[in-house]
Protein backbone atom coordinates (compact mmCIF):
# COMPACT_ATOMS: atom_id res chain seq x y z
CA UNK A 1 0.00 0.00 0.00
CA UNK A 2 1.48 3.34 -1.11
CA UNK A 3 0.35 6.65 0.39
CA UNK A 4 1.37 10.24 -0.39
CA UNK A 5 0.88 12.77 2.41
CA UNK A 6 0.83 16.34 1.04
CA UNK A 7 0.58 18.96 3.79
CA UNK A 8 2.69 22.02 4.58
CA UNK A 9 2.19 21.79 8.35
CA UNK A 10 5.32 19.93 9.41
CA UNK A 11 3.94 18.68 12.73
CA UNK A 12 0.84 17.07 11.24
CA UNK A 13 2.73 15.60 8.28
CA UNK A 14 5.47 14.18 10.49
CA UNK A 15 2.93 12.80 12.97
CA UNK A 16 0.99 10.99 10.25
CA UNK A 17 4.18 9.62 8.72
CA UNK A 18 5.35 8.39 12.14
CA UNK A 19 2.05 6.65 12.89
CA UNK A 20 1.59 5.19 9.40
CA UNK A 21 5.25 4.21 9.21
CA UNK A 22 4.73 1.96 12.21
CA UNK A 23 2.16 -0.05 10.25
CA UNK A 24 3.28 -3.02 8.19
CA UNK A 25 2.94 -2.91 4.42
CA UNK A 26 2.63 0.86 4.00
CA UNK A 27 5.09 2.83 1.85
CA UNK A 28 5.01 6.59 2.43
CA UNK A 29 6.02 9.68 0.53
CA UNK A 30 5.44 13.30 1.48
CA UNK A 31 5.11 16.74 -0.09
CA UNK A 32 4.70 20.23 1.36
CA UNK A 33 2.93 21.89 -1.59
CA UNK A 34 0.48 21.00 -4.34
CA UNK A 35 3.15 21.44 -7.02
CA UNK A 36 5.45 19.04 -5.18
CA UNK A 37 2.58 16.56 -4.83
CA UNK A 38 1.96 16.73 -8.59
CA UNK A 39 5.62 15.92 -9.25
CA UNK A 40 5.41 12.90 -6.92
CA UNK A 41 2.21 11.67 -8.61
CA UNK A 42 3.74 12.00 -12.09
CA UNK A 43 7.16 10.55 -11.31
CA UNK A 44 6.56 7.92 -8.63
CA UNK A 45 5.03 4.48 -8.79
CA UNK A 46 1.21 4.70 -8.52
CA UNK A 47 -0.20 5.54 -5.09
CA UNK A 48 -3.16 3.83 -3.44
CA UNK A 49 -4.06 7.17 -1.87
CA UNK A 50 -3.01 10.80 -2.22
CA UNK A 51 -3.93 12.94 0.79
CA UNK A 52 -4.04 16.68 -0.01
CA UNK A 53 -4.20 19.53 2.49
CA UNK A 54 -7.00 21.83 1.34
CA UNK A 55 -5.05 25.00 2.21
CA UNK A 56 -1.39 24.27 1.42
CA UNK A 57 0.72 26.38 -0.99
CA UNK A 58 -0.31 25.96 -4.63
CA UNK A 59 -3.62 24.36 -3.70
CA UNK A 60 -6.54 26.09 -5.39
CA UNK A 61 -9.39 24.44 -3.53
CA UNK A 62 -11.62 22.04 -5.42
CA UNK A 63 -10.03 22.98 -8.75
CA UNK A 64 -6.76 21.44 -7.60
CA UNK A 65 -8.63 18.41 -6.28
CA UNK A 66 -10.16 17.90 -9.72
CA UNK A 67 -6.72 18.17 -11.33
CA UNK A 68 -5.22 15.65 -8.93
CA UNK A 69 -8.08 13.20 -9.47
CA UNK A 70 -7.39 13.16 -13.21
CA UNK A 71 -3.58 12.96 -13.08
CA UNK A 72 -1.78 9.93 -14.47
CA UNK A 73 -4.95 8.26 -15.67
CA UNK A 74 -6.83 8.71 -12.42
CA UNK A 75 -5.88 8.89 -8.76
CA UNK A 76 -7.53 8.11 -5.44
CA UNK A 77 -7.36 11.49 -3.73
CA UNK A 78 -8.68 12.62 -0.36
CA UNK A 79 -8.75 16.03 1.30
CA UNK A 80 -7.56 16.86 4.79
CA UNK A 81 -8.37 20.24 6.31
CA UNK A 82 -8.81 22.24 9.46
CA UNK A 83 -10.73 25.00 7.69
CA UNK A 84 -12.97 23.48 5.02
CA UNK A 85 -16.72 23.42 5.64
CA UNK A 86 -19.20 20.59 5.42
CA UNK A 87 -20.33 21.98 2.06
CA UNK A 88 -16.80 21.73 0.66
CA UNK A 89 -16.51 18.18 1.98
CA UNK A 90 -19.80 17.25 0.29
CA UNK A 91 -18.64 18.76 -3.01
CA UNK A 92 -15.32 16.92 -2.81
CA UNK A 93 -17.07 13.60 -2.23
CA UNK A 94 -19.49 14.24 -5.09
CA UNK A 95 -16.50 14.93 -7.38
CA UNK A 96 -15.19 11.46 -6.62
CA UNK A 97 -12.74 12.16 -3.79
CA UNK A 98 -11.78 9.13 -1.72
CA UNK A 99 -12.76 11.05 1.38
CA UNK A 100 -12.58 14.11 3.59
CA UNK A 101 -10.62 14.12 6.83
CA UNK A 102 -10.87 16.97 9.38
CA UNK A 103 -7.59 17.74 11.14
CA UNK A 104 -9.48 17.67 14.42
CA UNK A 105 -9.58 13.87 14.32
CA UNK A 106 -7.27 12.13 16.82
CA UNK A 107 -4.07 10.78 15.27
CA UNK A 108 -5.15 7.14 15.57
CA UNK A 109 -8.47 7.91 13.88
CA UNK A 110 -6.64 9.78 11.11
CA UNK A 111 -4.42 6.77 10.49
CA UNK A 112 -7.39 4.39 10.40
CA UNK A 113 -9.22 6.70 7.97
CA UNK A 114 -6.21 6.85 5.65
CA UNK A 115 -5.85 3.06 5.64
CA UNK A 116 -9.59 2.71 4.99
CA UNK A 117 -9.45 5.05 1.99
CA UNK A 118 -6.26 3.48 0.62
CA UNK A 119 -8.07 0.14 0.53
CA UNK A 120 -10.66 1.60 -1.85
CA UNK A 121 -13.37 2.86 0.51
CA UNK A 122 -14.80 6.39 0.78
CA UNK A 123 -14.52 8.12 4.15
CA UNK A 124 -16.06 11.14 5.87
CA UNK A 125 -16.73 11.30 9.63
CA UNK A 126 -20.46 11.19 10.35
CA UNK A 127 -20.26 13.68 13.22
CA UNK A 128 -18.56 16.26 10.96
CA UNK A 129 -20.95 15.75 8.05
CA UNK A 130 -24.04 16.00 10.25
CA UNK A 131 -22.84 18.85 12.49
CA UNK A 132 -24.46 22.31 12.33
CA UNK A 133 -23.05 24.47 9.57
CA UNK A 134 -21.36 26.86 11.98
CA UNK A 135 -20.48 27.49 15.61
CA UNK A 136 -22.86 30.43 15.81
CA UNK A 137 -25.18 28.65 18.24
CA UNK A 138 -22.39 28.16 20.78
CA UNK A 139 -22.61 30.65 23.68
CA UNK A 140 -18.94 31.64 23.39
CA UNK A 141 -19.24 32.18 19.63
CA UNK A 142 -22.09 34.66 19.92
CA UNK A 143 -19.71 37.41 21.03
CA UNK A 144 -17.17 36.78 18.28
CA UNK A 145 -17.13 37.71 14.61
CA UNK A 146 -16.76 35.03 11.90
CA UNK A 147 -13.15 36.10 11.33
CA UNK A 148 -12.34 36.00 15.04
CA UNK A 149 -13.73 32.47 15.18
CA UNK A 150 -11.53 31.45 12.25
CA UNK A 151 -8.44 32.90 13.94
CA UNK A 152 -9.37 31.22 17.23
CA UNK A 153 -9.76 27.88 15.46
CA UNK A 154 -6.28 28.33 14.04
CA UNK A 155 -4.95 28.93 17.55
CA UNK A 156 -6.60 25.76 18.85
CA UNK A 157 -4.88 23.82 16.06
CA UNK A 158 -1.49 25.12 17.18
CA UNK A 159 -0.86 27.19 14.06
CA UNK A 160 1.51 30.15 13.94
CA UNK A 161 0.37 33.65 12.98
CA UNK A 162 1.96 33.12 9.57
CA UNK A 163 0.06 29.87 8.99
CA UNK A 164 -3.26 31.38 10.09
CA UNK A 165 -2.67 34.40 7.85
CA UNK A 166 -1.98 32.15 4.89
CA UNK A 167 -5.00 29.95 5.53
CA UNK A 168 -7.33 32.95 5.77
CA UNK A 169 -5.62 34.94 3.00
CA UNK A 170 -4.83 37.80 5.39
CA UNK A 171 -1.66 39.60 6.51
CA UNK A 172 0.12 38.79 9.76
CA UNK A 173 -0.54 42.30 11.21
CA UNK A 174 -4.26 41.73 10.60
CA UNK A 175 -4.10 38.41 12.44
CA UNK A 176 -2.38 40.13 15.36
CA UNK A 177 -5.19 42.69 15.54
CA UNK A 178 -7.80 39.96 15.59
CA UNK A 179 -5.88 38.14 18.30
CA UNK A 180 -5.70 41.28 20.44
CA UNK A 181 -9.48 41.58 20.23
CA UNK A 182 -9.88 37.88 20.96
CA UNK A 183 -7.76 38.12 24.10
CA UNK A 184 -9.92 40.98 25.37
CA UNK A 185 -13.21 39.22 24.60
CA UNK A 186 -12.08 35.91 26.09
CA UNK A 187 -10.38 37.62 29.06
CA UNK A 188 -7.04 35.89 28.44
CA UNK A 189 -3.44 37.09 28.11
CA UNK A 190 -1.95 34.91 25.38
CA UNK A 191 -2.62 32.46 22.53
CA UNK A 192 -2.18 29.38 24.70
CA UNK A 193 -4.81 30.55 27.16
CA UNK A 194 -7.18 31.44 24.29
CA UNK A 195 -6.79 27.96 22.78
CA UNK A 196 -7.36 26.27 26.16
CA UNK A 197 -10.49 28.34 26.86
CA UNK A 198 -11.93 27.52 23.42
CA UNK A 199 -11.19 23.81 23.73
CA UNK A 200 -12.47 23.57 27.31
CA UNK A 201 -15.69 25.21 26.20
CA UNK A 202 -16.07 22.69 23.37
CA UNK A 203 -16.13 25.41 20.74
CA UNK A 204 -14.06 23.37 18.25
UniProtKB/TrEMBL annotation:
Pfam families: GerE, Response_reg
All copies of domain HTH luxR-type, residue ranges: 137-202
Keywords: DNA-binding, Phosphoprotein
Protein name as annotated: Response regulator transcription factor
Record domain Response regulatory: where: 2-118
Modified residues (4-aspartylphosphate): 53
Annotated organism of origin: Thalassococcus lentus
